[in-house]
Specification:
246 residues, alpha/beta, two-stranded antiparallel sheet, 8 strands, 31% helix, WbqC family protein, WbqC
Length: 246
Amino acid sequence: MKLAIMQPYFFPYPGYFQLLAQADLWVVFDHCQFVNKGWVNRNRILHPDPEKGWQYLTVPLSKRGRFDFIDQIDIDENADWRKSLVGKLTHYRAAPHYQEVMAVFKDALSYQGSRLSAFLVNSLRLLADYLGVKTRIVVYSELSLGVEKVVHSGQWALRISEALGATEYLNPIGGESLFDPLEFFEAGIELRFLETRIREYCQGPYDYVPNLSILDAMMWCDSDTLKSMLSEDFSIHSCSGAFNEC
């Protein structure tokens, strides 16, 4: 069983869904510290002014503690943020798939509940369905795996993999330095890394801006292009037998 684990991100970039599509089981790791100005409650889309490139889409959050975990944080429901986010996408009206993508976006925004993690998980499931990704998605804070404090951050993936009976763990290559390959070898779990290479696609009147929210790719690309983007535009590397390099 191939396992992948990631924090919940707000309409993340296509590479997130490449990883999701390659896994048999996806654990949304929501019981970890929220990082301010990260990707949990915001992402990037094109700016109405092509010369400015891009702008943020942001979900406003209620007052929180400095060290709060993602699954402890609520959305600020005092702000009319749903209407604001829909308005920020209206300049995509000329995109060929605007109507169907907005339907998915509005469906995600209609989620009834203020807990950020639950909202994000629901959004990820809606996006996976639209993209045709069949990977089973579960939420760490709902699993009761009994994973205790780990020695280093890379051990979270190892312990969760062991608890769920995974034979293979897949991670973005950018996090390679976090892991000790020998630990995975001794546990009988193959450690592999996915390297994303998103192909350039047409963004209408804009010069190409890479690594935007999946919303952007969905607006401009048809289903066949999206499917090939998720299934072809990457490579997967296994760790070497030397264990000190991958």
